[in-house]
Amino acid sequence: MQEPLLGAEGLDYDTFPEKPPPSPGERARVGALQNKRVFLATFAAVLGNFSFGYALVYTSPVIPALEHSLDPDLHLTKSQASWFGSVFTLGAAAGGLSAMVLNDLLGRKLSIMFSAVPSAAGYALMAGAHGLWMLLLGRMLTGFAGGLTAACIPVYVSEIAPPGVRGALGATPQLMAVFGSLSLYALGLLLPWRWLAVAGEAPVLTMILLLSVMPNSPRFLLSRGKDEEALQALAWLRGADADVQWEFEQIQDNIRRQSSRVSWAEARDPHVYRPVAIALLMRLLQQLTGITPILVYLQPIFDSTAVLLPPQDDAAIVGAVRLLSVLIAALTMDLAGRKVLLFVSGYAMGWGPITWLLMSEILPLRARGVASGLCVLVSWLTAFVLTKSFLLVVNAFGLQVPFFFFAAICLVNLVFTGCCVPETKGRSLEQIESFFRTGRRSFLR
């Protein structure tokens, strides 16, 4: 049976009638302005991901420096280093948990802006640290901000982007996170560890300034009964010359049929639990590939190997390769499709950016805020277990043991992708939700 999301649309999936296509000249003129404004709003939001990527790998150059520190209050033992590296993920799990409430209470944009408070406070604590507790608290606060933005930003981006560029824009959170990590590695070659924390404040402040003049998600505004404000937000995002009425009515119709939150009874409905289960498993399997402990301890990992270059240079090279890979994914995702990249590419081109995008695409609107927070919670609790135990396992059994485990998980990921992950390329969020609502199981085959 042909997969509905891959093949031609049948009557069951043609939920929203298509309007006549515009002329090529009109499409080019309107599309340029439309994408320009959407790109600007996306850039403002994903600065939060830049800060997240920067904070995540902050320990990579800092742990070796503090392990050799002459200050007894800041000198780290192996056990303390494992806590310094892993406590970030506990904060991120708490941030994901808070997103389950804030995403729907404040909205996507305000939740992203709120993340600046713990992020700025965390960097300030680490910059002025005179004891281990300040380092750990700073890491936890920046982790909380990262977990909150990880749940809110993909949802915000997917809800403001038109289908034609949603794949490319959906990769920008991961792209900016990787760019943030690369920036940390590069600055780590030049700055002492305290000034690395000071530098982390810059993207946080820039994000606040830019987001303050960006619109909220039209879908969120409609779900709160703010129809006029939602229409204005959509018109701004699409441009003054764009005909947004059809898209507005499409979104409005979908929200009208989902005017209340999902109840526990409704959560047992296949069109709700299937996409949520797929998103949760993707986030779990993504973390089980070992990406977080590898990035957190990247420089110590190179320290324990016989590489030719200095470990800090190797870490910067890894960051540059990741950035290039995510950039390629962003440019090809709407052409090749999501599943193809999941099958044929490495983490930075596949399971890194695409899992975040698919999470925001397939989750049902009524459960999107809560479910995205749940996905982040599961993701970062898994990351904490891996990050806290990584150094202990390496010290006890050697570096090869965790890497054999990560390789086995990658094989499981291939099977899961082939059996369970639907292709969403070129579909509106409403069409994707309609696909799951039919109850057909062809997407699992």
UniProtKB/TrEMBL annotation:
Keywords: Membrane, Transmembrane, Transmembrane helix. One of its GO terms (cellular component) is membrane. SUPFAM superfamilies: MFS general substrate transporter. The chain crosses the membrane at residues 38-63, 83-103, 110-130, 169-187, 340-359, 365-386, 393-416. It holds the Pfam family Sugar_tr. It is a multi-pass membrane protein. PANTHER family: PTHR48021, SOLUTE CARRIER FAMILY 2, FACILITATED GLUCOSE TRANSPORTER MEMBER 6. This is Solute carrier family 2 member 6. It comes from Prolemur simus.
